[in-house]
Design a protein that fits this description.
By secondary structure, the protein is α+β, with helices and mostly antiparallel strands. It contains 16 helices and 13 strands. It has helices at residues 31-47, 52-66, 78-93, 160-177, 199-207, 214-226, 246-249, 255-273, 286-297, 302-306, 354-357, 377-397, 403-420, 441-457, 469-475, 491-496, and strands at 98-100, 120-125, 131-137, 143-150, 183-194, 232-243, 282-283, 320-323, 328-330, 333-342, 365-375, 425-437, 461-464. α12 (377-397) packs antiparallel against α13 (403-420).
């Protein structure tokens, strides 16, 4: 929902009407929980004439199974939490929480750890003849990713009308992703870090003319020597991930077929993203992507990497990593990642994420990743209609409906109307990663407090990624990992719970 803006006296435009998908069910239970409750009730009713004690025991057993199926505010059930804890302790007992790479490791390389270890990076050429990195993910059933480098413009010196236009263009870009054959996920990564002081000097040196006047050369040298010292670095990436289905990439999923197909699509998607305030998006090469990933694992090497130090894809991982329940230690740094469990409630303005995206003195390196899963128009129509029926049923099932139930019904109705008029449907999430120097408890405590304050200013509810910090850290990098595809429980079954 939005309101008109951009002219004198107009009400500022607002945005909202997002909601979590609802599984049909009774009360707080989903479809699986409701099925268990119905089955348990029927068995107990059949046992009543036979043996009352057996019937009471069946009712108690059904209740014990149902209570952990009630989802918490974070969306995870008690059974899910128990399975996650068990898997973490099992992995820790096997030593999977420790990662070591380097000359003494298998392959003698510094490969990426965890879910990213299976990613293979190739160099392809797009329709314009420009090279770009093509990432293949065999572990996710076969997906391919291209990464675009973007230059966030920020909101300084941008009036309200231009800002609204950029937001509308980004919304159109997201809706168009649902029409891309085979595209299953996208992400926008915004990173803030201290400027190493070499980027501006390298750019000026590359553009310097040998015939430039001495005065101009002296002024530029002075700028290069003094300006970067107090500046912050803001950079970003956009990832696009396709599933390599036979209908899209051929029955054999050949590498060349995939490269040719993405080479035709990536330039058009990059051009469409340019009007959203992303600067001039361009696909990253294999070497550029390797340097960006290496800098995430070792921020102390950022200056050398920005200066052009070459890094092979097989060596962009950490030399060592250690996982703790709420921390991830890698090389000389420690990272903490949070996941969004609640979007801003009510209507918000276009600058709602500004506090979370802006540089912060207590957060040396901060990475905010917006995750998108576009839905094709056919599936979107079914989903909004299902959510509409489910919301109505849940509200009608209550003896005394609350205001929040009325709002949920209105939101579902509005969503169905907008989808019927051609609006796109996109699932979204958010990850926030902060990296501080290792062995500094005060820096960790300051980072936790700062992120909590920024999340409150942006009206976003964040939850620390307990017992899955390495996975969340990798998911927040521009690698194209689709985390729902990495779970052993099918997404459809998990949503029904």
């Amino acid at each position: 929902m939005s309101q008109e803006a951009g002219r004198p006296g107009a009400t500022p435009r607002t945005y909202g009407n997002w909601a979590k998908p609802r599984s049909p069910g009774v009360g707080p239970l989903g479809l699986v929980g409701s099925g268990v409750a119905l089955l348990g009730t029927l068995i107990a009713a059949v046992l009543v004439p036979v043996n009352l004690l057996y019937a009471l025991g069946m009712g108690a057993l059904t209740g014990l199974v149902l209570v952990p199926l009630i989802p918490t505010r974070s969306g995870r059930t008690g059974w899910g939490e128990a399975i996650a804890r068990l898997a973490w302790w099992r992995g820790r007992a096997k030593g999977q929480h420790v990662y070591e790479a380097g000359p003494l490791s298998p392959g003698a390389r510094f490969r990426l750890p965890g879910l990213a270890a299976a990613i293979v990076a190739h160099e392809a050429t797009d329709a314009a003849g420009q090279p770009f990195a093509l990432l293949l993910h065999p572990s996710a059933g076969g997906t391919a990713t291209a990464v675009l480098g973007i230059q966030p413009e920020g909101e300084a010196l941008i009036d309200e009308a231009d800002r609204d236009r950029m937001v509308a263009t980004l919304g159109g870009w997201q809706a168009a992703l649902g029409h891309e054959p085979g595209l299953i996920a996208a992400a926008i990564v915004i990173e803030t870090a201290p400027d190493p002081g070499t980027r501006l000097a390298a750019e000026l040196a590359a553009r310097r003319s040998p015939d430039a006047p001495a005065l101009s050369v002296a002024v530029l040298d002075d700028i290069a020597a003094t300006y970067p010292r107090s500046a912050g670095l803001l950079r970003g990436w956009a990832t696009l991930t396709w599933t390599r289905t036979p209908t899209t990439f051929g029955a054999r999923k050949a590498l060349q077929t995939t490269a040719d197909e993405l080479g035709r699509r990536v330039p058009a998607l990059a051009l469409a993203l340019a009007d959203t305030g992303a600067g001039a998006p361009a696909a990253l090469t294999r070497g550029e992507l390797a340097r960006a990933v290496r800098a995430a694992f070792s921020p102390s090497e950022a200056a050398a990497l920005d200066a052009g130090r070459a890094v092979e894809w097989e060596d962009c991982g950490p030399a060592g990593a250690l996982e703790e329940p709420g921390l991830y230690h890698h090389d000389e740094s420690t990272s903490i990642t949070w996941a969004m469990v609640g979007a801003p409630r009510g209507a918000v303005g276009s600058s709602i994420l500004t506090p979370l995206l802006a540089p912060h003195p207590a957060l040396p390196v901060k990475r905010v990743t917006l995750l998108y899963r576009p839905i094709n128009p056919a599936s979107a129509a079914r989903m909004v209609e299902r959510d509409r029926r489910t919301t109505r049923f849940r509200a009608a099932a209550k003896r005394q409906a609350k205001a929040v139930d009325d709002v949920a019904v209105l939101a579902a109705e509005q969503q169905a109307i907008e989808e019927a008029h051609g609006a796109g449907l996109v699932r979204f999430g958010l990850l926030v990663t902060v990296t501080v120097p290792a062995g500094d408890p005060e820096a960790i405590a300051a980072a936790v407090a700062a992120v909590g304050g920024l999340a409150a200013q942006s009206r976003i509810e964040l939850r620390r990624c307990w017992r899955w910090q390495p996975t969340a850290f990798l998911g927040a990098l521009p690698l194209g990992l689709v985390l729902p595809l990495q779970t052993r429980i099918p997404p459809s079954l998990r949503e029904a719970m």
